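Researcher: Re-running this chain for the archive, since the previous output was lost when a drive failed. Same request as before.
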Amino acid sequence: MSPARFEILEHTADVGLRIYGQTLAELFANAGLGLMALALEPRDVPERERLPLAAAGSDAAELLVNWLSEILYHLDTEGWAFRRFVIRECSPTAIRAEGWGERCDPAARRRAVAVKAVTYHQLCVRETPGGYEATVYFDI
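Model: Regenerated structure tokens:
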């Protein structure tokens, strides 16, 4: 059985994710998948198109917020839904990747949770004996 990629965390006015990865790149890919699992219904998205994605930050925590904000921007404004993320380069301060999925009219896409923004509330990215773990909350 493969290890968990992410867990959904409940909070008063927010929803969060605890994300896992053996590497920092895997952590960021799993964070993107977690955001898609929160935001979209149905979750079975075909891999028809590829979108280059990139983000930067002063450290891994800020990078995670900026990475997820980049994905959320493309979801909300352009109707992108991603099934998979391929991380091309990843350091604690920059990420370059590709999102694979499809683009459609944002108004036609069924939303599971209306994620408004990525927050810094209880934000944490840390290295563990098994790899990496992160916690991030979203304003809904």
